[in-house]
């Protein structure tokens, strides 16, 4: 049992040592692409929520707060999308760019956190699709 795991650990260690040059740009680009896909999914969900709120109209109790929160979320998502484009553009292997990339990455992470908090409030106020009365035959 233990010997088997030790052999696997040694194999992984040997592989890592033989592959010292990891393409950081490739890793970062894949990570940014995944973040962009998640951003697009949330963007679509917020657009759908905005449509549902607008269909309910101003008579809905939380109409204005939800419109404002969804609009903030959409604007922040667009900002994160633009930041991700800039993050992918820069070469991570260039040490002179590390400070700038670190700031952009921290900014994107902070904005994503704010987006999550805003969307928690959107969910708390409750976006429901308008219910239509059933037609009786």
UniProtKB/TrEMBL annotation:
Gene Ontology process terms (BP): cell adhesion; tissue regeneration
Q: Where are the transmembrane segments?
A: 60-87, 107-127
The highest taxon in the source lineage is: Eukaryota
What Gene Ontology cellular component terms go with this record? membrane
Q: How does it sit in the membrane?
A: Multi-pass membrane protein
* InterPro entries, per the entry: Ninjurin
Which keywords appear in this protein's UniProt record, sorted alphabetically? Cell adhesion, Membrane, Transmembrane, Transmembrane helix
- Note whether Transmembrane helix occurs among the keywords: yes
Q: Per its UniProt record, what Pfam families does this chain match?
A: Ninjurin
The cellular location(s) given in this protein's UniProt record come to: Membrane
The record's similarity note reads: Belongs to the ninjurin family.
Q: What is this protein called?
A: Ninjurin 1
Source organism of the structure? Laticauda laticaudata
Q: Which gene encodes it?
A: NINJ1
